[in-house]
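Kindly go through the following sequence and its backbone structure tokens. Advise at your convenience whether the structure tokens fit the sequence:

___
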Amino acid sequence: MFINTKFYVITVASIFIALGIGIYVGFMLDAQEILIHQKQDIVASLEERFDYIRAENQKMKLKIDKLEKQISNYEEFSNTVLPAIIRNKLNGIKVTIIETSDDYIYSGLVQTLEKSGAKVVSTITFKDSFINKLENYTNNTDNNLLNNFKTKSEKKDVKKIIIEELMKELTEDQSKQLINSLVENDFIDIFGNYKTGADYVIITGGYIEADNYINLKNYIKEIINYCKKNDIPVIGVEKENVKRSYISVYKEERIPSIDNVDSVIGKASLILTMTGKPGNYGIKNTADTLMPSYIY
């Protein structure tokens, strides 16, 4: 019988194609099943990991809640015992507070000092434009406010003469001519009975903008130098989170400092330091130790 070669070739080719398709389909079915199992394993592993993380987060939340409660208790305890620690420690001391910037408010400082028996006779605040205005005034030869001081300075540093006169008026019972002029010309704000001189000076610092930060250091140093020359105790303080700190200036000038005066620990440190325990206290890198030792 005659066999058509073309038909034979097509038949054989069809068989092999069908066989190949079958093998491919079978392989794909097996691969799909394997893939499904792998996905299921991954999902199960992720779920297990998620459950573990969720459990750990819950443990951490409970721990944080416990620590926050402890901190709250410590703060309540500290606020309760602080008045007992500072009571009558500064009886009779007259204090002037010099706020070198109005970027940060130190209103709680007065209350702490008064609880210790001290009397805050004045609080003076250098306004933001203090340095710029003073520079303009000192460069102006036809200014009535500063003519007297230019005569006194004999062409020396007028700014130094002004700071010295300002400190003299703040710490002595005398005429307050310069203070009144600075207030009238919007250089400073002042509160309290500043007609009474102070026998202790507290400098509060911390600056936000960098414009006058460096220049203001020179004014702070002049204040400190005046206090040292006249045997007036002086201390520099600031809050925990000031943007630009002056603690390094206080350390350089070798006066006591507190870098966390807005905290209970800082308030206690301030009063104890003023009783005669000088040092650089607080929580920042510039601090030597947390607070002064306390003996009841």
The chain has two domains: 1-86, 90-281. The mean pLDDT is 82. The two ends are 127 Å apart (CA to CA). The CA atoms of residues 53 and 59 lie 10 Å apart.
